[in-house]
Amino acid sequence: VVIEREQQTVIREYVKKQPLASVKIPGVELNLGSTLPETVELHEVPNTKYRTVVVDNRTVVVDPGTRKIIKIIE
Question: 20 to 30 Å CA-CA from 11: which of 1, 37, 61, 70?
Answer without folding.
Answer: 37
